[in-house]
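Render this sequence as a predicted structure.
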Amino acid sequence: MTTVLVLGANGMLGHRLCRAWQGRFQVHATTRGDAALPPGVVDPTHLHPGIDATEPAAVVPALGTVLTRLRPDVVVNAVGLIKQRAEAADTRQAILVNAWFPHAAAAVCAEHGARFVHVSTDCVFTGARGGYTEAHPADADDVYGRSKRLGEPAPAPGSAVTLRMSLIGRELAGSHGLVEWFLQQARSGGSVPGFTHAHFSGLTTQAAAAVIGHVIERHPGLHGTWHVAAERIAKYDLLRGLATALGLAVEVAPRPEPVIDRSLDGSAFAGATGWEAPGWPEMLAGLAADSPWYDRWRGMADATQRGEGGSR
């Protein structure tokens, strides 16, 4: 069985990769701190805490020690500051986590003979045109977008592959991403703004786990930078679909601004791998079916923080 090490197991993507790949791969995972993960994310004996991308002097030897012990076939980098977090505008933090760390991790993987899969973002583009192919120059002019572009490892046959994509999904804690924000707004009542001219071509984290798993299993020689995309959709339509899938009685109020289109053209990747993105109804139905697991975990975590008992 292929041994896969997921970097960033408590993040929105990282934990979902771990959950999806149980039984498919031998999954190990790292976290920045030592916080507990919900049952079913990863075998506790396969969890390796203390891999902190903001500590450059310590993280390289720490990661090297983990790779020496595990000898994984593949390392997937799901570590990153997301655009919605305040730290993403902090130049030092963004450079360390989004730009420096992927290159450092890729170098450690190369030394240990492990394939490196790096997950990047559509935010390397400004969104002025949409339909971006791999040939379009990354033109982001903000700290976050530039840091993500700088963090994409240079292609080297057989060693590193960068998958650019945009993601939505449930989180273990916090409300930094679109879905948790939407749920929070829906529970508080009132309408939620939906941008009719803000387009993207993202995936749910569940679908992302499927396609990254496909790359690991079926395309071991794939390298370089690729765009992974679903059907282009406006954020307004996405939120309406999400409300329907989750059974939420919330009004999504159309807003004409901002006008932005960061949709990616994933045809080259589809041609190279044979992968077809699921449609939005299918992806949102999967997200909704998965949501009770998150509600239970977040409820237990909240109760524990309030001192009401319960266990992680």
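Summary. Residues 3-169+202-229+262-281 form a domain with the Rossmann fold fold (CATH 3.40.50.720). The chain has a mean pLDDT of 93.
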